[in-house]
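Standup notes
- HV: blocked on the assembly model, inputs below
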Amino acid sequence: MHEFLNDQIDVIASFCQNRVIPKRIRWNERDYDISNVNLVHTAREGQKRIFYFSVSDNTNYFKLKLDPEYLEWHLVELYN
Amino acid sequence: MSRIILHIDMNSYFASVEQQANPFLRGKPLGITGKHQERSVIAAASIEAKKLGVKTAMSTWEAKRICPSLILYPGDPEKYSYITSQFNSIFSEYTNYVEQFSIDECFLDLSKTVADYLEAIVLAQTIRERIKKTCGEKITCSIGIAPNKLIAKLCSEQVKPNGITTVCKQNVLKFLDTCKLRDLCGIGNRIENRLGSLGINTFDQLRKFPLEKLVNEFNSYGYWLHESAHGLNDSPVINTREEPKSIGHSYTLSENTEDKNEMKNCLLGLSDRVAWRLRNEGFVARCVHVIIRYSDFTTMAQQQTFTEPTSNGLMLFKIAWQIIEKWLDVSKPVRLLGLSASTLSKGNEYQSLFKKERKVRSLQKSLDKIQNRYGSDAWTRASLIGVHFKKRSSGFHSPNSPSTM
C-alpha cells in the first residue's frame, strides 16, 4: 500500500562526514529502526532547500522530509 | 582528427530511480504514471515491466491489461531532476562539452579529453561506476561511443541495460547496415513509410538512392537523410542552454467536466504558473496557445497573437479564455486543458500610462518576491482558493523555477 502523508515525526539521526543519516523514526507512537538510506534528494521551496530521505526498514519504505530551517521532520510517504 | 562523442542514456530512468528509492519495488514490473493513475499514461516502465510487454506512453489501462501484476506508481519529478543534476555534474568533471538532450540523455564531446577510443571506453566505464556510486546501484545507463552524435545515440540503444557500444569511424557503415531505418533518431513512422514507398528499406538502399530524388521528395531533409545514411553528422555538442521558444503547462482534470467555472479556475491557475515562469526567466510573450482535449481524446488547439507583450497571468488567462469561448465544443466534456505562451522576448512589460495598471504591476513584483522567498504556494488568488493542482504531476515541475508545486 502506498500512502501520501504529511505527519510530523521524531527522528534520531547521526551527522557524519557532512551527511545526515536517519537512524530511527517515531511515528504513531511506534519506533521504526531504519536499516537503509536508499536515496537522498533535495528540492526548493522558495529560497529554502528541503531534504528528502528515501529510507526503509525490513518491511516499510518511508520518505522523510527535513526542513533545515525549522529542523522539522515529516513522514511524507509510506509504502508497505 | 575524428571526433569522439559519448551518448549516455539512463535505463528506464524514472522507474530505476523509484526502485533505487524504494527497495520493495525492485525486481517487480513497475510503471511510472501521472497524478491520476487511472487517467494517465506510462511515463517510464521498469526493465521487468518492459520484458512483460509494457511500453512507454501506453495508457495505464492498456498496460494493466497486458500486465495485471504491474505496479502503478506516481512520478516524482523533483527527485528525477535532482538525480539528473547529480549525473550532469559528474559528466562536467570530464569535459566542458556536455549537452543535455533530455532529462535522461546527454552527449559528451571527448575529442579534447581522450586520445583514442580505448581511452574513451575506460572513461565511459569510470562514469558508469561514478553514477552507480553517487546515485545508487539501481540507476544504470547505456553508453554509445562514436564519431558523431547521430551514431553515438544509435550505439547507446544497442545494449540495454548497462551496455557500452563503440563504433569507430571505419566501422560506421557496417554498423548502420545492421540497424533498421527507424532506429535512427530523426526517422519516425511517417518518414519510414515515405522512404518505403520509394523502395528504400535499408541504409544501404538509402545510400545508393540518388540525392536529387531524395531532395525532390523531402526538400532539405533529403540532404540530412543522405548524409545520415553515410554515417555523417557534424552537429556540435552544445553546452549552453538554448532559450525556450515557449513556456507552458497542461493539466488533466481529475474528472471530465462540462462546467465552465471549473475550466476557468484551471485555466487561471495554469496562466498564473506560466506567467510566473515567464517573469522568473525574464521573458514577455506575444502569443497564447490553448489546448483542449475532450473526453473522446479529440484535441482542439488554437492560438492568438497580440501586440502588447505580457507576463501577466490574468492577461494570459483573458486571452486564453477568449479562445476557449470561441472554439469550445460544448457537446463534449473536457479532459485536459493546456496553455502556453510563445513569441517570447527578453524584457519587461510596457510601462502603463494608467495608475491602476501601474499599481497592479507593482503589486505583482511584491508577490513575486514573496513567491521567490516562500515558494509557489505562498499566495493564491481569492478566486482560486480551494483549487488545488495535484502535486506529483510532471507538468508542474520546472527544475529552473525557484519553487515547485
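- HV (later): unblocked. The first strand of chain A starts at residue 2 and ends at 16. The CA atoms of residues 4 and 77 of chain A lie 5 Å apart.
- Next: hand off to the docking folks.
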